[in-house]
Amino acid sequence: MAANGWIKIHRALLEHFITDDPTALSLWVHLLLLANHSDKKRLINGKPITIKRGQLMTSRPSLSSKTSINQSRIERLLNMLESEQMIEQQKFSKYRLISITKYQQYQLNEQVSEQQTNSKRTADEQQMNTLEECKEGKECKEQPKKARKRAESFALPEWINQALWDDFMTVRKQIKAANTDGAKKALITKLVKLQQEGHDPHESIAQSIENSWKGVFPVKSQQAGYGAQPQQQTSIKDL
Question: Which residues contact 216 (CB under 8 A, 6 or more apart)?
Fold first, then answer.
C-alpha cells in the first residue's frame, strides 16, 4: 500500500479502554493505517481476491515487523479486538484477512470532505478559465453558464459500490423515478446522513433494490414490517 493520504482518528478514542495499553493502541492505529481506503484485488495463492475498503490482508510476522510487538502478543491483541467487535478475522495458512468493523462509519466524513473539496476546486478552476477566455473575447455570455453546468455534474463517491448503485438506478428507472443529477445528489446526501446515524449505506441500497423503493431508508427487520416502504417527513417526489 502506498504511504499517501490520511485517515481520520476521532478524539473519542482517548476515552476508549484501548488507550490504557500503549501496545494495543499502537497495533490498532497500524490496522487503521494499513486498511484499504478503496476496494482492490490481490493475488493470494494464485487466485484474485478483492480486499474491500476497511480490510487488510496481513500476517502476524508482518504486523510484528511493523509494530515491533512480538507475535504471541499480536495474536492475543487481535483476538481481544475481535472479541470487542472492533475487527473481524478470516485466517488462512499464511495470511489473515482483517476487517475494521466500523471503518465506513469512522472514515466517511474524510471521503465526503475530500470529494467536496475536489468539486469546489474544479468549479473554481473552470470559472477562472472562463474569465480568461472572456478577456480574450471568447463567448463571454455563454461560457459561465456552461462552466457551472459542467461543475454541477454528478460523480458517484468512491465509498459507494458502483455495481450496487447501478442496480439501484435500474430499479428506480423501472418504477419511473427520475435519475437526474439532482436526484442522485439528494440520494447521496441521504446516504451520508444514514451513515452518520450508524447505518450501513450499502445495506440501505440493497433493501431499496429488493423492495423496489425509489428512496433509501434505515434497514428494517421483518418484525418491524420489512417490505413496506417507511414513512418519512420530507417528500421524495422529485428524486
Answer: 187, 190, 191, 194, 201, 204, 205, 207, 208
Q: Are 41 and 91 contacting, i.e. CB atoms less than 8 angstroms apart?
A: no
d(CA 33, CA 97): 15
Q: How far is the C-alpha of 99 from the C-alpha of 86, rounded, in Å?
A: 9
* φ, ψ of residue 198 in degrees (nearest 5): 95, 10
Whether the Cβ atoms of residue 51 and residue 42 lie closer than 8 Å to each other: yes
Could you give the CA distance from residue 197 to residue 218 in angstroms, rounded to a whole number?
A: 9
User: How many CB atoms neighbour CB 124 within 10 A?
Assistant: 11
Residues forming beta bridges with residue 57, ordered by sequence position = 97
C-alpha cell at 155: 460523480
Contact 56, 31 (CB under 8 A): yes
Q: Report pLDDT digits (tens) over 79-129.
A: 999 999 999 999 888 889 999 998 877 776 444 445 555 555 555 555 555
C-alpha to C-alpha distances, 18 to 25, 62, 95, nearest whole angstrom:
6, 21, 25
Per 3-state DSSP, what percentage of the chain is helix, strand, and coil (rounded to 5)?
55, 10, 35
Whole-number mean pLDDT of the chain?
Answer: 79
Range scoring the smallest mean pLDDT among 91-95, 132-136, 160-164, 177-181: 132-136
Q: Has this prediction a pTM greater than 0.90?
A: no
CA–CA separation, 110 vs 133, rounded Å? Answer: 35
